[in-house]
Amino acid sequence: MEAPHSGAAEHAPGTDPVNSTSLTVHSPAEMGELGRALAKLLRPGDLVMLTGELGAGKTTLTRGLGEGLGVRGAVTSPTFVIARVHPPLGAGPALVHVDAYRLGGGLDEMEDLDLDVSLPESVIVVEWGDGKVEELSDDRLHVVIDRATGDTDDDVRKVRLDGIGARWAAADLAGLGA
Fold this sequence. Notes:
By secondary structure, the chain is α/β, with parallel strands linked by helices. The chain has helices spanning 28-39, 58-69, 107-111, 115-118, and strands at 19-25, 47-52, 83-86, 94-99, 122-127, 140-147, 157-164. It has a seven-stranded mixed sheet with strand order 1-7-6-2-5-4-3, with helices on one face.
């Protein structure tokens, strides 16, 4: 991974990041490494939103998070089951992995998943959650993964991490690319 640099992002009013960083990831293996490094910053109650095109690496990043958190079960895309809970193997938090791609509604539809009940003791990662889960927490980490589109086999990804809310003000996001 290349060293991070500060990145600006566009967000709804009142949800501006308090802490941001951007970095370049060169391979799926590095995306997994980023997930493992990010897991060290996560704690129960954290909401992580992942945004990116199909094939950008959202599930690869989440797999690394699961490895870093030490959870049970293979982390795979929950597209067809909507959500998967991976219990901790030790004393850490569970990982709740949600794919909101097929969910059209906002928080009302997400409420059926009882994410608000799971949030205090789990780390919740939501793929495709923009406009759907922001109301779950004033504090969240928004990860945006950009990749080259079209007919390319380029594995390079630009990753922007935006910490929103007091929880993320002092987090060492810049240290993730070191």
